[in-house]
TrEMBL record:
Organism: Methylophaga muralis
InterPro entries for this protein: COV1-like
Positions of transmembrane segments: 36-61
Protein name per its UniProtKB record: DUF502 domain-containing protein
Domain of life: Bacteria
Keywords for the protein's UniProt record, in alphabetical order: Membrane, Transmembrane, Transmembrane helix
Length: 198
């Protein structure tokens, strides 16, 4: 069954990308140029387009184009607010040296005695920290099976349990609705070390 589903998904993606070739002018349609249909040519075109776009954006000209584009967006009142907020979130989440989404935690939510998987998003909360007695951290509790939505909670650091599983393993568990329980390599090493000490 997994092989069949994988085949169907790949076939659907290739079919969708092949349909994108219809956007080309009639003179450049592969069927007219070669006289026959070439399955997967849309995938090659999409990969080439992504690579060329990446190379353009990575050089000096690309940076100038992005800076010019952002300057234009900054002049539009509502768009400016939405764009800057999304940009800040993406930079915080995707930064390789950041602390966001680096730890998988267990949090008692929605009530005591019931545990939920969460991801630590920040431990520097500024005013929130100043106005709370306990040392709090910000955590994101995703919903299942769609982890792009969820809840942001400020939780006392002493009340969370840090897990050894990776973020990817945590996401797999959430997306699978708890069916796929990760066999964390780090956790196994930790248990093995404890057994060796005994």
């Amino acid at each position: 069954m997994p092989l069949g589903v994988t085949f169907l998904v790949v076939r659907a993606i290739v079919g969708f990308l092949d349909k994108s070739l219809t956007l080309l002018p009639d003179a450049f349609q592969p069927d007219r140029l070669f006289g026959f249909n070439i399955p997967g040519l849309g995938v090659v075109l999409a990969v080439a387009l992504v690579l060329v776009t990446g190379m353009i954006m990575a050089n000096l000209l690309g940076r100038r184009l992005v800076a010019f584009w952002e300057l234009q967006l900054a002049k539009i009142p509502l768009v400016r607010t939405i764009y800057s907020a999304i940009k800040q979130i993406m930079e915080a989440v995707l930064a390789t040296d950041g602390k966001s989404f680096r730890k998988v935690l267990l949090v008692e939510y929605p009530r005591k005695g019931v545990w939920s998987l969460a991801f630590m998003t920040s431990d520097d909360l500024g005013e929130v920290q100043d106005k709370t007695a306990a040392n709090v951290i910000s955590v994101f509790i995703p919903t299942t099976p769609n982890p792009t939505s969820g809840f942001v909670l400020m939780v006392p650091e002493s009340e969370v349990i840090e897990l050894d599983m990776t973020v990817e393993e945590g996401l797999k568990m959430i997306i699978s609705m708890g069916v796929v329980v990760p066999d964390s390599e780090a956790y196994r090493r930790k248990i093995q070390a404890q057994q060796n000490l005994e």
